[in-house]
Batch of 3 targets.
Target 1
Amino acid sequence: MKLEEKLFLDRYVVDEDNPHLKIKDPELCQKCEKKQCLYACPAGVYTWDGKQITVAYADCLECGTCRIVCREHDNIDWKYPRGGYGVSFKFG
């Protein structure tokens, strides 16, 4: 089973009013040479369009990998979603 098929099994309840994941300073991402978040996130939450990072926080698996790999600039504001929101794993 492909990763995309496995991720489809998860259920997300998105908190539009209070996102649990965001970039602190988007301009700082432009200076980041490695952009580790693009490659380390297992759900592919981060994308780079050549000018800025986009965060698809609704797809987040809440693993915290991004905040660990962004040590160079500490530019990711990550917290657990408030109660009733976030990811629910259906099978496993």
Target 2
Amino acid sequence: MREITEEIRQEIKDMIFDYYAEECEVERDEITMDTNPQEDLGSDSLMFVELIEMTADKFDLDIKLQSIGKYMLKAPMETMSDVVEMFCKIYQYGNDIVNQ
């Protein structure tokens, strides 16, 4: 398990917010932790998969989409706060996220 520091948490949050701002063509400061990625930004599952791949590349993680899918069944992504928290768990636990 990797340690999640405040610096890493902020780096993950910035990466996610920057990604959604660019892909959804909105100003970054319009996105808050309460923003719903699907309803408020119009994001889709393909964008989410791309973000997972970016995270895996950036932090040198071996992530299986099946593991993340199983985790998401019990922890839906309704706000950006949920998304950031899930990506922090991906960083910490990798494919063991399913057991969290």
Target 3
Amino acid sequence: MPSVPGLRSPYVKVGRLVYFGRMLDKIRLQAAGRLPEDYQANFGKAFDLRCCNFLRVRHDELQARTLAGDLGDAQLLAWAEQQGGARTDEECEVWNGFMMKRGWRDPAAGILARRIAESALHAAPIMTMFDYLDFDEGRDPVTPRLWEH
């Protein structure tokens, strides 16, 4: 998949959480008719659903609140925490660790291997689903190591 303008890396944090900003980007891109077809099958599912479940909000409610257009990303996260209850720093640390390592020696490893093969990314140093998403979209998450800043 080539670069998707307006779709950030899953490693980029909004507040204390990885992935949340990417999900907001997908919501906005889908509403604008600019979310590629390859992304439609997992829209509101997979990592989107995991993120919403972690926040205890429904994806359709977050989608509606996002598309109202009056809140920025940090404000949308605050809204989600208000709806579903705030998470502790430890819960956020566990969430981030789980998400950033998904596909590495866990039940998703087979899916990751299949996607790497389908995308002909065998030479890339991909160890996780986040790495795969970045390399597949033309970003190199390994060199800058954004998740460590």
